[in-house]
Amino acid sequence: MSFFGGIGGKSLWDAARDIVTSREKAETLPTESNTVLFVGSRTGGKTTMILRYLERTNEAAKPTIALDYNYAKKPKTIDTIGKDVGHIWELGDGTFLTKLIDVVLTPETIANASVVLVLDLSQPQELWHTYQTLYEAIAKRIKYCINEASKQNPYIKEKLKQSVLKRLGNAVRLDKGEIEPLRIPLLIVGSKYDLFQTLEPDAKKSIIKTLRFLTYYHGATLMSYSEKQESVHLRAMINHFLFDTSLSNKQPQIDYQKPLYVKSGSETPEQIGPPPIPEYELGDLRENSPIAVWRAAYCKRFPQEIEKRDPSLTQDYGRDPQYADASIDAMREQKMSELQRYLTMKNRSHS
User: Fold this and answer.
1) Is pLDDT at 108 greater than 90 in this prediction?
2) Domain locations in the chain?
3) Superfamily of domain 30-273
4) For every residue of 139-188, which 3-state class applies, written as one string?
5) Those residues with Cβ within 8 angstroms of residue 38's Cβ, 6 or more apart along the chain or in another chain
6) What is the mean pLDDT of residues 6-11?
7) What is the separation of C-alpha 103 from the centre of its chain, rounded to a whole number of angstroms?
8) pLDDT for 26
9) What confidence tens digit (pLDDT) does each residue in 273-282 have?
10) So what's the pLDDT on residue 3?
């Protein structure tokens, strides 16, 4: 074979040029890793979802104390280019530690961040409060991060706006005020779907209808989840968030007796229908905005129970056996003994 002989019909010069071109293209591909933040109901199953996705099913899920971090390597079955590692954060303790959202969502990460909001469907009396508290904290933080990031990158606002339009369909008019989509991708997961099935049919219909409205209003994707069943939709969605994979155009599944799935932009207000209260009661609602009307309707059907904590009764995780560490525990006991001796001496000096 001559120096200019063919390799797959190409000369060596052509093959070499193709290699150089491919390397130049690779250097221009985005290299920033994507970040996914899990938030939601306490004991809603967030940790189990993450462990299953990471295929660490032999590990027992432990309560997340504050903020937990994992990373995921791109599976070999995914052929997207440019992002090989994704970051997964989990906010623990339900609605009590929202300030820690600031650690994950920053001006540097916001352009490549997504949120998974997990709502426990077996606790409808806490669902709206959990959603509202976490969503408002996230939306506020996102707004701040975008404003800060735009000082360095003036195109980020337009970039995120175009991403919203792409998720919802370009026919959507954001300036009409009919919806308020989150500026980064949002997945709403209705967890404990197996326990949800034990509720009364009317209650299930009302909950699912409300979730469908929230999904439409915030430009989110909605799906159900049960620890008793593997969710291919959840795995596909996390892969999409972390590694920019494509999503299938599966039709919405809204029958509460089957696994729930509604992709962002796939439903209209006409398909969802009015809030889940009798029509004659709608006229009694004084709220003006769509979200306020749905909140009033849902909370009338399911009055919300807001958990209040006495800080003195907060669990002492330092004495929890599952977080035991011999060296740290010994130091802790030493410091506690020193404190006790100091307090004893102080009391004697005043007596």
Assistant:
1) yes
2) 30-273
3) P-loop containing nucleotide triphosphate hydrolases (3.40.50.300)
4) HHHHHHHHHHHCCCCCCHHHHHHHHHHHHHCCCCCHHHCCCCCCCCCEEE
5) 46, 49, 50, 88, 89, 90, 91, 116, 118
6) 52
7) 15
8) 42
9) 999 887 767 6
10) 38
